[in-house]
Amino acid sequence: METVGDQQIQLVQDKEYEEEIGPYYGKYLGTFLSARGQVRADLFDAGSQVIAYISFPTGLSASNVEDHYVDELYSYAKSQGFRDRFRMMHTE
Questions:
Q1: Using an 8 Å Cβ cutoff, are 54 and 69 in contact?
Q2: Sign of the four-CA dihedral 10, 76, 23, 67
């Protein structure tokens, strides 16, 4: 778990996911899981951009999810030096 400011960011490594999907999206950086598991973000470095592919495993959507994730992901991107080329893409 990494601490960014007052926030703790957890990026886990999903080796199976990396092997299956990684070659199509770029270098797999890790997976962020929100506090209650409402949000999953798979981060890939595609060279010109770092993209967080956002999904909602519990069936919620961006309009009704309660877990915080946007500020956490932007803070993480800033702390890692790629904030200027970071974007989020909702997959559902």
A1: yes
A2: positive
